[in-house]
Structure formats: C-alpha cells, structure tokens
Amino acid sequence: MPSGKETRLLHLSEMEKLDKTLFRLEQGFELQFRLGPTLQGKPVTVYTNYPASGEVFDHHKFRTLSWHNPTGKEDDSDKYCKLDLQISGSYQYYFSLGNEKSGGGYIVVDPILHVGADNHVLPLDCVTLQTFLAKCLGPFHEWEDRLKVAKETGYNMIHFTPLQKLGLSRSCYSLADQLEVNPEFSSHNKKCTWSDIGALVEKLKNEWNMLCITDVVYNHTAANSEWLKMHPECGYNLVNSPHLKPAWVLDRALWHLTCMVADGKYTAKGLPPLIENDHHLNCIRKIIWEDIYPKIKLWEFFQVDVNKAVQQFKTLLTQGKGNSITKSDPNQHLQIVQDPDYRRFGCTVDMNIALATFIPHSNGPAAIEECCNWFRKRIEELNAEQYRQTNHHQEQAVTCLVGTVVYERLAGEGPKLGPISRKYPLVTRYFTYPFKELTVEEEETMIHQPDKACYFMAHNGWVMGDDPLRNFAEPGSNVYLRRELICWGDSVKLRYGNKPEDCPYLWAHMKKYTEITATYFHGVRLDNCHSTPIHVAEYMLDTARKLRANLYVVAELFTGNEELDNIFVNRLGITSLIREAMTAYNSHEEGRLVYRFGGEPVGSFVQPRLRPLMPAIAHALFMDITHDNECPIQHRSAYDALPSAMIVSMACCATGSTKGYDELVPHQISVVSEERFYAKWNPAAHLTSGEVNFQTGILAGRLAINRLHQELGAKGFNQVYVDQVDEDIVAVTRHCPNTHQSVVAVSRTAFRDPKTSFYSKEVPEMCIPGKIEEVVLEARTIERNASPYKKDERFINGLPNFTMELREHIQIKDSKIIKQAGTAIKGPNEFVQEIEFEKLTPGSVIVFRVSLDPKAQEAVGVLRNHLIQFSPHFKSGSLPDDHSAPILKILFSSIASKLTLADLNQVLYRCEAEEQEDGGGCYNIPNWSPLKYAGLQGLMSVMADIRPKNDLGHPFCDNLRSGDWMIDYVSNRLISRAGACAEVGKWLSAMFVYLKRIPRYLIPCYFDAILVGAYTTLLDVGWHQMSSFVQNGSTFVKHLSLGSVQMCGIGKYSCLPDLSPSLHDVPYRLNEITNEKEQCCVSLAAGLPHFSSGIFRSWGRDTFIALRGLMLVTGRYLEARNIILAFGGTLRHGLIPNLLGQGTHARYNCRDAVWWWLQCIQDYCKIVPNGLDILKCPVSRMYPRDDSSPQPAGTMDQPLYEVIQEAMQRHMEGINFRERNAGPQIDQNMRDEGFNVTAGVDRETGFVFGGNRFNCGTWMDKMGESDRARNRGIPATPRDGSAVEIVGLCKSAVRWLLDLSGKNVFPFRGVTVKRHGKEETITYDEWNRKIQGHFERLFFVSENPADPNEKHPNLVHKRGIYKDSYGASSPWCDYQLRPNFTIAMVVAPELFTPERAWKALQIAEEKLLGPLGMKTLDPDDMVYCGVYDNALDNDNYNVARGFNYHQGPEWLWPIGYFLRAKLYFSKLIGPEIYAKTVVMIKNVLSRHYVHLERSSWKGLPELTNENGQYCPFSCETQAWSIGVILEILYDL
C-alpha cells in the first residue's frame, strides 16, 4: 500500500442496517469493505451507487464491487472490495447474501473547498462564516462597502439569506419567486441580475479569499407567489388533499370568531379584543365549546348516514343477497370506511361484511326488520366512536389555540401582539382564502367545488416534537385539525408527492431554482431542513452537485436526536451541521460544546493509516449566534460577546457568527420585520451614522480571533483540551501533535451583567505546562463615554458605549492582564509557568502561544527522526540527531533480523510462570492488572484497546505518565538476556533516553509509537523465518502462526532430554552457572498459562497433536525434528510418555501419545524436503530396557526406524506393566488398579486396545477428585477397549510403514511375536487388511436395526454414526456420540465409506458443533453437562470437581479434525457439496479469527463452556487449538 494513502476498513455484518450511523471520509481515502465474522465464506455481493471512474453519479444506479483476495483462498480474513473516494457527496452501499439483501448504510465524503485566485484549499476546520440578511444589504451597488466589514474582520465565508423576490410578509424566507432576483437590489438605472451576483461572488473568492453560500428553501413558497395561482396543485389544497376539509372548516370558523372579537361583538360574553388575563382565556374556551363546535359539527365528516345505510342494507337483504355472502376473513368486523371526498355523512360501511355479520333467522319481514335494527344499532355505535374521536381532536385544538394566545399576547418573552384585529388575528390562519368573505355556511359550499377548493391551500409551519421524517400535511396526520402547527401564515406548504411525475411543474421549477443557486454559489444552507421531504432535498442536492461537485452543504436540524440527525446527514450528504453556543446555559456547557464538536484529546495516539472506519458525529459549524437566535446582549450581557466568541472560535471545527453580533446590536435583527440597512466599512477615525470600523464593538477583536482560528485549523492544531478554571473562566488549549506547540485561550465569560451581578476580584492562578513564547492577543471589553444607545432609523446600529482594548503579539512582561508569571520545574524536563492575573475582568480574554521547553522540544524532534523508519508520518517536526547512541545509527530492522524464532519468544511473549523460572515476572499495572506477557505482546494487547479510543485515562497511561518504571522494565528485561535479545533491549533503551526527556503527558503517545514500530518489525522478522504458506498467507494465517512463537521457547532449564551427541545442527549454549556447554532445544508448551513451565510444560500427546500445525506447517523443521527425536529417546514399554518431566520423571500412562508421535513422524516425512532422512537419525535411548535407569545421551544410540519398529512390535506382543512409584506420590487421585497399564493388538481385528475402568489412557483423561460426590479415583471417561481415534492412528501408521517397506525405505516388513512357543510374523500388509476389513463392520452404527454385526442393539440411540470405542468395559460407552471418530477420518480416511462418513459428519455438525469447539459429548446423553467448573465440589457425581471435563464442554482441537474430515469427504461427494462445505468452514473459522484478534493472549483457548461461553478454568491459549486451525487453513 502506498505510504501516503489513508485506508479505512468497514466490516460488514449480517442484517446490520447502518442508515443511522454516520461514516465521514475525505477525498483521496480508500474505503475497503471486509467481511465480518458472520459473513466469511458466504457468497456476499456489495453494491454501491458511488460511480465507477468516468461515470456520472446516479442515485438509483448501483453497481457491484469486485472482491480482491490478496493472499489466495484459504480464508476470507483479508478479502475486500474497495472504493477510491474522489467525489464529495453522500453514497449508499448495501450487500446481499445470495439473493437476500442483508444490510447496508451510507458514507459521506467531504467536499474540498478552494479559495483565492490560486484556488488554494480552505480546510473545513478553518471556515469562519458570517450570516447576512440579504434585504439589509441595500441596493446591489452598495453591497461591497457593506460586505467589506466581513472581509476586514477576518471572515472567509459569507452566508446570504435568500436573494430572491420576497413575499408580502417581507420575511427573508418567504419567497414570491424562486427564480427572480429580489427587485429591491436593482437601482433606477441598473437592474440587478443573477450574473451580477455571480460576478461579485467570484470577485470575493479570488480577490478577498471569501466563499459565499446561500439558503435554499424547498418546503414552502410565499402565499402570494404568482406561479402558485397558475399551479395550485403545487400546494396541499382541498382537491388533492380532501382530508384537510374538516380542518379548513374549523380554520374559517376561527377566522370569523377573530372578526367578531375584533369588532367587540363578544365583549358582552367576557371576551374583549385585548386579552389580559386567565378569565379572558377561559371565555375563549367556553365560546369555542359552546358556540363554534356545535355549529360546525366536525364529527359529521367522519360519520355514516344511518338511515341511508340501513335502507341500503334492507334492500340487499330483501333481494336475498345475504345468503350468498361468507366472510373471507372471520376476523373482519364492521368498520366505517372514510369517504375519500370528506363530505358530511359521506362515510360508508362494507355491505358484504354487514351481510355476513347480521344474518336474519328467516326470510320473513319481521326477521329482516329485527336484523336491520341490529345493524342500525351497530352503525350508531360506530358513529358514536367517531364522535368521541373528533372530540379528542377538538380538546387538543382548544389546548393548542389557548397556548398560542398565551405566548403571543401574555407571555413575557413573547411578541405581545396587543388587541385582536384582522391584522393580528386570534390565531394565525392555517389556510389561504382568496375569495370574498361570506358566512361560514356559505363558505363551506365552496369546498366541494374543485375550481374554488383548489385555491384553499395549507400554510406551512412546524410541529413541536414531531417526527421529522413524517410529513404532517399528508393523510393520516391530524396536525391541522388539532391545531398543533406553529404556523407561518405567509407561506404555503409545497406538495411534491413521491416523484417528479406526481407534480411535474413544482419539481421542474425547484430544480431550476437549485441550478441557479449551484451555478453562482459555493454552497447552500438547507432551510427548514428537518421539515423538507428528504427525497426532495436528496433529488435537488444531486442536481446541485452535478453543477458544483464540491458543494458545501450546511443545515440546522432541530430533531434533538443524533441518530435522526444522522439520517439527514447521510441521505443528503450534509457537510456541516449548525450548532449554537446560545444553547449553553453557562460557561461550563459552552466549554463542553467546544470539546464535543471537534478535535482529539491532547497527547492522542498516532493512528495507523490502515484502520477500521469508526462512526463519527457530524462535522460542526459552531456559531456563537445564528440569525434566528435571540440577542445574547439581552440574554447574557454585552461583556460576554468577546469571551464567548473566543471560546467558540477555539473549537476544532468550522465556526461562524451573524452580522450584528460584533457590532453589539442589542436586539435580535428580525428576519421578518427588519428593514434598515447594515453599516458600511470606513477605516477613517471619524464615523458618521451607518459606518463602522475597528473602534466599533468587538470588530478589532473579531479579526484577531478569526485569524487565530484559521491558523490553528491550517497548521494542524487538532488536539483539544478544555479546562473549566472556575464558574466563569474557560481555558481552551489547541495542540499540534507534530510540533507540540499549543495555543491556550483563557476567557472570562459574562453570562451575568457585571454591573448588576457579583464577580470575584480573586481569579485563581493558572499553571500552563511548557514555555510561553508570546501572548498572541489580550483583549478586554470596556465601557467608554458615548451618548447612550438609540435605535437608528436607517441603519442597524450597536451599543456605542462599549468597545475593547486589544494588544497583539506581546511578551508576558508587557501584559496588562497578567500580574506576574513564575516558572516552576515539575520534574526534570517539564516547565510549568504559573500565571497570576491582575485584570482578567469579566469580558476579557488572553491567548498564549506555548512550546515545549527547548530540551524537551529537541528530544521530541530526535525521537520523531528515529521513528521515520517506521512511518513517514513522523517527518514533520523531526530533527537530525548528531549525538545519539551508536546503536540508533543502525536501522531497527537490521538489529531485529539477528533474532531467531526462539529469541522472538523471549522478546514478544512469555507468561508469568515462564518469567518466574528466570527470576522475573510480568509487569503489574497498579489499579489494574498484570500484563498477560512479559514481552512486547503483553503491552501491545493493552495498547490495541486503548489506541483506537484514545483512552488516555486508562491506568496503563497513568502508569506511564507517573514514572519510568514500565519504560525501564521493557528495555532492562531484554538487556539482561544475552545475545540478539539484548541488542533489541539496548536499542529500546537508547530510544527511551529521549522519551524520558519529553513532558509526561506526551509519553503514552510516543511510547506507543516506539513499541508499535518495533513490534511490527519483529513480527515481520518472525514471518520471514517461516514457511511460504505463512509468508504468503492471510492475516489470519500469519497471526495464528505467531502461536508457534508463543508456544515454542527455551527456558532456563531444558525441558527436553538431551539428543544424541552425534546428531548435527543441535543448538547449544553456555550454562550461566556451570559455564559448561549444554543443549538448548526449543520445547513446545501445551498451553498458557497453566502448562508453560517446569515439569508441566511438555506433554507427549499435546506436543504431537500440535506439532504438525505449529511446527511443520510453519516451516520449523529442525526444531520439529529435535522434538520428535527427544521424545523418541524416552520410549519405554513401547510407549511415549504423557507427562515428559525431562524424561527422568516421565509418566507412561497414556495409550495414544505413541500413535500421535508416529503420525508426526509420517507428517514430517511428507511435508519436510528430504523428510525421510529423519528415519536414519540417531535416537539416544534414555531407557534401553524397560527397567534401565535413565542413561546419559550417547550411551545407546539407535536409528529412528528401529525405535518405530520397537513401538509396533511391543504393541503386537502386548504391553502390561505397573507404573513406577505407583501411589499418591505420583497421582493423589488414582485408585491402585489404575496404575496398571495394558495395551495390545487384537489378532483378529488388528485393532489396538488397552486400558481398564480405573484409568484413562486417551486425551479424555479426567480423573474424579471429589470425596463428597464419591467420584475420587474413578475416571469420567476411561475409553478402554479400542478407542476410535487410536484405531485410526494405528491404521495410518501401519499403512505408511507398509508403503515405506515396499519402497525399501523401512527395513521391516512386519512384526514378529512368539505364539505357542513359535515365532510368528504378522506383516504390515496383513495388519493393514485386518483393520480395513473390520473397521466399518464393528464401528459403524448401522441404519438397519437388524444388523447382525451389532452386539448390543438395545444400547443404540443414534444411528448412522461411528462408535467412540469398541469393546469398552461399560458397553454403553461405545455408543456415545463424541467427536473422536473425525480424527480417524482425517488420518485414515480409507476406513470410511464416503456416504456413511458424510452422514455421520452431518449428525456431528448438528449435535456437537459449537461456536469455537466441538461438544465432547452428545447433548442428548443423560450425563451431558456443558459447563466445566473445576472448583465446584458438591454431591453431584457427574460434575463435582470438574468431573464433566470431557462430558460436554466444547474443546477446540477436535474442531480442526471435524472440519478437515468434512473437507476431505465433501470432495468425494461432489463439487456442489464441496463448495458449500468450503463456505461453512470459512464461516466457522471466522469465529476463531475474531477470538484470536480480540484475545489479549493472542491465542485460542483450550475449551469453552457450552455454546462458546467463556470458561475461566481453560488455558487462555492452547498449542493444539492453534495448531489444528493452522492445519485446516493449510488444507484449504
């Protein structure tokens, strides 16, 4: 991957719908879709409407993405399809599984804004926007003088409210014609056109470096729009929306009420025109309930004409229609069917249901009459229900109406409209009425005359707490009837329908409007976005982006819900959401908003260029005030304008303000009623009315603040820290992670007026870490002598008696706000400057530029220089290093390349027990827990969790900030080891010299960077020494192969017995104590942490089950050879030990280890180049005879093939001995009989058999330990007789030796035994045929109940399976379903008929397959228990002290054999089954991948409890679990 490319990974999960999750990306990023665990192996297709290169974007056109699998086919962990993101906008993706759509979501790609004649980039976080009400700019030729104020005060973006012709109300957002420029901009000699405006916008971009955006209003148009008269279908009128008729009738009745109240006709009833108190409100309620509702009878619109319906019903009955009707659905009941035209009593009922419900008992007239009466009664009930429903609506309407009256006429914060009049009616009209006024009754006749009714159109507005995705004017909503709309009486709501064909004129008109806007402006603000039908906005923005690809889209959403916001941001591709500082009720909340809307924490970790795509919050355009906010001077105080502007401007996002804020205009500039013009810019000292300059308000401060905001955004100060110093003082730090410069802005807010509220003179001292380079600016709001504020008639003016003192770029000593600054040293390399304030009065700000002290700055530069070898990210801010230790002059990769895989085990892994053997231990983090490994993986596992979340508060980071303990531990631990490991330690130590010189808050981030660089290099070194299967393998294969490094190591004491001195390539070392040469072969731990050190590290069975996967598949041939030969040297009684105990303390109590050892030798010969040479290698026999004492290596050497032959020979002769030292000293639970070991071969069947009911010689070796439950000394699973997997392993060995002897590679043709005093030879050919001939006959449980081979038909409870054993002392144990037969299928598939094998595998899959492992016993078995608890001691024989270890819990290693067997036999069944099996296997393995990635041990466990639940008694990482998964991937 090119080093500079940022790549994000999106993992797909089945059925995951992410339409409410926001994914933000930048142009130039690559997005990779990868399969989550639920989808791996399955046929997934990803579709997207992101256009292919050279194509044009079409919302509805989806294309398929093609899959890349960089490493081939063994698994899907790296399979991906990708998008190279080059175009801004919102794009959809979804994916299907087979033919089923399964999940999907959106991605939003940010636009890139260009400004200036040279088109340089304006980063989104540098935007400083100012809103202008277009109508207050005056004639077009004066605009430049007015807009110049924004340029001079440092804004780089202007937001114009709509520039179109306005409606009668003069509201900026009520447009009479969307296509025509507001004629007021034209002067008598010059008409203002769109191209004039376009030329000005272009000039502002090129000469003033300012971009311009404007509003688009899609939701409504002015009620007096001319085009609406020609096209009334564009509104919600009573023809196309007849459901609004009852609401219209109510609306007219309320208008008539207004007229009567205004004319004083209700004064006698207690309701004068001027409403002043609760009594008047009660009178309104009374009049509506008593005079209006009874008169307009709204319920009739929802009711049935009873007589008419009964008459119709009677007619149908008398015609005999009732007899033929039956209900299609018995649950259908009689209901009122709403009249689609909404006429009074126009509703009906379904007569078919009526006839099927009310059935007369005869055809006589009396019966029919009775039936009609029942029908009438039911209709009357239904009508009564409609009446009640309407009554509920009427109650709500009264409540809303009175609430509106209270706000508009009585409330302190309301507009106080005064007496009721036709201009200021009782309530705003909901509908247009363009005709002569008549009586209510006469007017109502018009609603059924389409030529008139089409002009009765619904006004727009907004509904408190409504679902923004629902259109409140559509049928199904009663907002207009219930008077819940807060109505804009100047605007008609537009009715688009679902697609352009539904209202062609409207869509075409608005499309033209959009095209004009996108042609001339750089961006749009979506007005009233949350009420605009989302599909309309989507269509219009697609249109706009066709003309301007990098369209900047902003919107204000009032949903109050982030998930809902995300739906809009996703579907519309909104770039920035407007956020308001005015929502903050105190300075603390204002500071919190700064932190919320952008930036990372200071000291954040460096994230890799390739990383998961994380959900984001929408990019913010954070405004100190928006044009529809109340005035902050009224809400807070004039003193607060400057500090709040400063706080907002320190946010790491786009920021903005509204014209008038900086001039300290002490009232809201109304979008409806303001008609005065803005002031012009005049730099001269003397100002006249309608002019401003830097002496006005806080304009001078605004320039400094805007400049600073743009500098911080452009120079990458993207880390943010907000400190609430006290209740009024907020300090915001912006930090640059490359140069480690900071800018700290301290603002003292004035939410309360300092003249009338108490502010303490005592300001707390502040500590600023680092060296203050300068005071960037300090400013105070002050009063000056000036005539008091008087509202200017012609121009919008601010408070004249406030201005500010501003001083920029000064030294601390010259500051007027600071009393003094002392320097304290906090630790060896940390300066802290203590600031004592003198005049930080309410309304003042001071901004410091801070760097690290010079020594720390240099140390960071040198560190970054040495980190460039790992990532180009560190180039910026790096310094050449002339004085560093010589070892740092060498690239780390070259130091690391000297490490062997055994060295890597020391550097990366080693758990607590392994370290303790060397006298050390794992690092323990206070208030948390010890690390899992002493090596780097221990740290990396923790940091992998902390890094993506930037969890700098984690105890791990605390520990790093508090002292050097962990840092020293990492390097010293390695230096204390000799050789190449020590060199790695020395390199780390030399890097840490610089790490210790930087401020503590930066140490976690750089410690992480050093370790990530070293760790990834070390992993590459490891993989480089492994097989090509690993080197070219997937991420999953590579990470699994590290299990080999994790498990294979050399401890302080050798675990393996010494190999023959005559063997070549054996590793040696000098013993630290005796200084003598000793062998140091790698040994394989069975599992961590329980089987990792001392005598419990090496086990014969575990070693040889794991060896193929962990050592042969990974290419560690020499080490595998040494382990095979070392164990071969301990052969005794024809057996390989279970517990190795260095050979001298070996226990020969297992019957299967020798067969696993033989299987490994066979695998070695097949996989390793010239592998057969191992057969001639010398084996030093520790026990030349069964009763020898242990012999030193070299005493008696034999070629390996002789040892193999001895194992075969001894089995055929029969093995029978008692364990040495039998008794509690070697096994405190075993009963006496259990120490007697027997094994042999059945002469007739060729099956290996052995064991007794008091011992357990296979891998299922749990011995009872509970006295309380009386199971002590009883094996839970003796598996005596012929265990199925041992028979399979024996067959594999016999077949292999037969083949080798045929090729004259193995000198023995068979085994010789004495029988009746004579020697008799059983050839391998004969032995092989015996097993082959008897296996299915005796192990397969036939589908035929009368099968003559079945000894115990009464014990069969599953057919079509293979027995777990044959000839057990408890015969029912043979018939238990367990996963062991699958092992035989893999090592000796020739024993199985493919069809039978496949059926048995299907049963095993259905009954035994768990998420990670295989159930060790059929859940239908009476002793099944899937939860292993070794600590539980109770009376339950079957579970006490973990007795059920192999009676249900899901072990991982058998799953490898199960999957390999499925793969093998599916090929024999047919290509379709094979393809399905590969899908299934990949899907199962994906769960192991997820576990491996999430595990802090970076391994796979020994077992899980049922259904994959965590088992606390399991080893966290087990050699054979990892080995078998590598094997199935190798087979794939």
Please name the defining characteristics of this protein.
1532 residues; alpha/beta; 7-stranded mixed sheet; 17% strand; 57 strands; globular
Describe this structure in words.
Helix 16 runs parallel beside helix 17 and helix 38 packs parallel to helix 40. It is built from 40 helices and 57 strands. The chain has 1532 residues and is an alpha/beta fold.
Summarize the structure.
The chain has 1532 residues and is an alpha/beta fold. It has 40 helices and 57 strands.
Average pLDDT across residues?
93
The major pleated sheet works out as: 8 strands, parallel, barrel
- By DSSP (H or I, 4+ residues per run), the number of helices equals 40
Rg computed from alpha carbons, rounded to a whole number of angstroms: 43 Å
Q: Helices and strands: which structural class?
A: alpha/beta
In total, the number of strands is: 57
Globally, the shape reads globular
Main β-sheet, spatial strand arrangement: 12-13-16-22-23-24-27-28
Distance between the termini: 27 Å
Percentage of residues in helical conformation: 25-40%
User: Could you tell me the strand content as a percent range?
Assistant: 15-25%
Unreliable runs, pLDDT <50, ≥5 residues? none
List the helices and strands and how they pair.
Layout: E1 7-12, E2 17-18, E3 24-25, E4 30-35, E5 44-48, E6 63-64, E7 80-84, E8 89-97, E9 100-109, E10 113-115, E11 120-122, E12 128-132, H1 143-152, E13 157-160, E14 164-166, E15 175-181, H2 194-208, E16 211-216, E17 220-222, H3 226-230, H4 245-262, H5 278-296, H6 306-318, E18 336-337, E19 348-349, H7 351-357, H8 365-410, H9 440-445, H10 450-453, E20 459-463, E21 485-493, H11 504-520, E22 523-526, H12 534-547, E23 552-555, H13 562-572, E24 576-580, H14 587-596, E25 600-601, E26 610-612, E27 620-623, H15 632-635, H16 641-649, E28 654-658, E29 680-681, E30 691-692, H17 699-714, E31 719-724, E32 729-735, E33 742-748, E34 766-769, E35 771-783, E36 802-810, E37 818-825, E38 831-837, E39 844-851, H18 854-867, H19 892-896, H20 901-908, H21 912-917, H22 936-949, H23 955-962, H24 965-975, H25 979-995, H26 1003-1024, H27 1028-1031, H28 1035-1047, E40 1048-1049, E41 1068-1070, E42 1077-1079, E43 1083-1084, E44 1087-1088, H29 1100-1112, H30 1117-1128, H31 1153-1167, E45 1178-1180, E46 1197-1199, H32 1200-1213, E47 1215-1218, E48 1236-1241, ...
Parallel strand pairs: 1-4, 1-26, 2-9, 3-9, 12-13, 12-28, 13-16, 16-22, 22-23, 23-24, 24-27, 25-31, 27-28, 29-30
Antiparallel strand pairs: 4-7, 5-6, 5-8, 8-9, 10-11, 14-15, 17-21, 18-19, 20-21, 31-32, 32-33, 33-39, 34-38, 35-36, 35-39, 37-38, 40-43, 41-42, 44-57, 45-46, 47-48, 48-49, 50-53, 51-52, 54-55, 55-56
Helix pairs in contact: 5-8, 6-8, 11-12, 16-17, 22-26, 24-25, 25-26, 28-40, 29-30, 29-31, 29-40, 30-31, 31-33, 33-34, 33-36, 36-38, 37-38, 38-39, 38-40
